[in-house]
Design a protein that fits this description.
single chain; alpha+beta; NADH Oxidase; 4-stranded antiparallel beta sheet; two-stranded antiparallel sheet; about 15% strand; binds flavin mononucleotide
Length: about 190
């Protein structure tokens, strides 16, 4: 699949068929995440693949009641909890090296996008879920204190055929020339 097509056609999917995503496929999508760039190549991420139905249900119950991905997380083929070790990315001697904090979030974002695009490339579907009780997830999955669960990614085969995504803001509303606010595109 062409990269441009993958970028444009990937959608957040919240309804899955009963297709079983194989261990090989799971490894393949995590392999794509593994090659993402990261701060000083620290690769502070880790991935907990959840197959156990009981644990999947517990995780989905940590999603807010109004979260549109709540139901699909209990019925997906698997969940991939994406975690990150804190205090390394963006830090120097344990202190923030820039005025921005939590660079691990940025690293994880890049890895997760690689994962989702590769899943799409393999004919699989994902949704990134961030609106959840992170502390509860951490405890359910026995994630060490110095790590955070950042997002949960339900994965499966889409039951929403040819889904069109929400539209995007236009290029001219986000692209400037030489100084912020000065139009690049007329
Ligand atoms: C960091 C992040 C957190 C998200 N959290 C949720 C979530 O909790 N529940 C959900 O249904 N979708 C979630 N999404 C998916 C977005 O709603 C979705 O990407 C956006 O509406 C654009 O749709 P598209 O992915 O189909 O292009 C999240 C996406 C990102 C990047």
């Amino acid at each position: 699949m062409e990269l441009k097509e993958a970028i444009l056609k990937r959608r957040s999917i919240r309804k899955f068929t009963d297709y079983y995503v194989t261990d090989e496929e799971i490894k393949e999508v995590i392999e794509a995440a593994r090659w993402a760039p990261s701060w000083k190549n620290l690769q502070v991420w880790s991935f907990v693949v959840i197959r156990d139905r009981n644990i999947m249900e517990q995780i989905s119950n940590t999603f807010s009641k109004t979260n549109p991905a709540r139901q699909c997380a209990a019925t997906a083929s698997a969940l991939i909890a994406t975690c990150a070790k804190k205090g390394l990315s963006g830090c120097s001697n344990g202190l923030d090296a820039t005025c921005l904090n939590n660079w691990f979030m940025f690293d994880v974002g890049l890895a997760v996008q690689n994962l989702c695009l590769r899943a799409h490339d393999l004919g699989l579907a994902t949704v990134i879920v961030g609106l959840l009780d992170h502390q509860s997830c951490k405890s359910i999955l026995s994630v060490p204190e110095d790590n955070e669960v950042v997002v949960i990614i339900p994965i499966g085969k889409s039951a929403e055929k040819d889904k069109t995504g929400p539209s995007r803001k236009t290029l001219d509303t986000m692209t400037y020339l030489d100084s912020f606010g000065k139009a690049l595109i007329r």
